Amino acid sequence: VQLQASGGGLVQAGGSLRLSCAASGRTFGTYAMGWFRQAPGKEREFVAGISWSGGSTDYADSVKGRFTISRDNAAITAYLQMNSLKPEDTAVYYCAARLPGSSYYSHWGQGTLVTVSS
After folding, report:
1. How much helix, strand and coil, in percent to the nearest 5, is found in the chain?
2. How far apart are CA 9 and CA 99, in angstroms?
3. What percent of the chain has pLDDT over 70?
4. Whole-angstrom Cα distance, residue 35 to residue 78?
5. What number is the average pLDDT over the span 56-77?
6. Angle value at C-alpha 18, between 25 and 92, nearest 5 degrees
7. Rg of the chain, C-alpha, whole Å
């Protein structure tokens, strides 16, 4: 599966953005999906994950209650709705895919930059 992330941009603190991760390949529905981010000078960190069916989600503590991950298997796209954005959310955001039962994300998109101004 190939992944293409989009939707990043510049937003003021308190604003919202929705990131999209468009996938190619008919096997998209078998993969669990995740969003990660990497801020300047920091290591990449997990943001949110969703099971292949969409029935199970997981979030980093720093984004719980503000971000929502979802997916549309018919549209072979995953989303990350980001609300109440903070300057510390500024980072390059990546989507990734892993097979169920594996903790290893084997497929990665190219990243989209989110900048939150104070």
Report:
1. 5, 50, 45
2. 30
3. 99
4. 9
5. 95
6. 80
7. 13
Residue type for position 2: Q
The segment with the largest mean pLDDT, out of 23-27, 58-62, 75-79, is: 58-62
Residues 80 and 93 sit within 8 Å (Cβ to Cβ): yes
Is 37 strand, coil or helix? strand
DSSP for 51-82 reads -TTSS-EEE-TTTTTTEEEEEETTTTEEEEEE
Q: Which of 18, 17, 55, 16 is nearest to 33 (CA)?
A: 55
Residue position matching structure tokens 């997916």: 71
Q: What is the bridge-based pairing of β-strands 112-117 and 9-12?
A: parallel
Give the H/E segment covering residue 48. Answer: strand 45-50
